[in-house]
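Researcher: Please predict.
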Amino acid sequence: MVAFEVAGVKLKAETRPDLFSPKDLDRGSRLLLEQLSDAEYASALDWGCGWGAMTLWLAKHRPSAQVLALDSDIGAIKSTEANVQLNALTNVEVVISHGYEDISTEQSFDLIISNPPTHRGREVVETMIAESKQRLAKGGRLIIVVEARLKPWVQRALTAEFGACEVLARSSKHVVILALK
């Protein structure tokens, strides 16, 4: 069992050893969530939800919001579903999908967040960035966290797609970047 707190939001979760950061909320995701303490959103998406840490936080932080958790790994989906139940959250939908393939093209979001699987290569992250722009509502925000060493190419990809981006926070190992639609 993992218990964590970010910006006053307390959560618990069961994790799996085959998923990213199975022993605790990772530092990059924590840094991203810390930037959302005052965030307003009616609809949010956690792209690549893993065991659901950021999904859980989004849902508990704004109980009136609808939160969608998305991952292509069935183990991640099952883990997130179990953790939604564990935290008694009723405003979360969990969907298995490769990217946005199984999400209605009509569905848009005020906020999309991700700690993307950069180990899968640039193409996966760049595709996520491009497809996320199409899924954001007008004025919507894409906020991603990556290792600091990857900032230059991720920043270029965001700027190419959105026209501009902004670094919200950085640590010695991570950077959180925002792009607005």
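Model: The radius of gyration is 15 Å.
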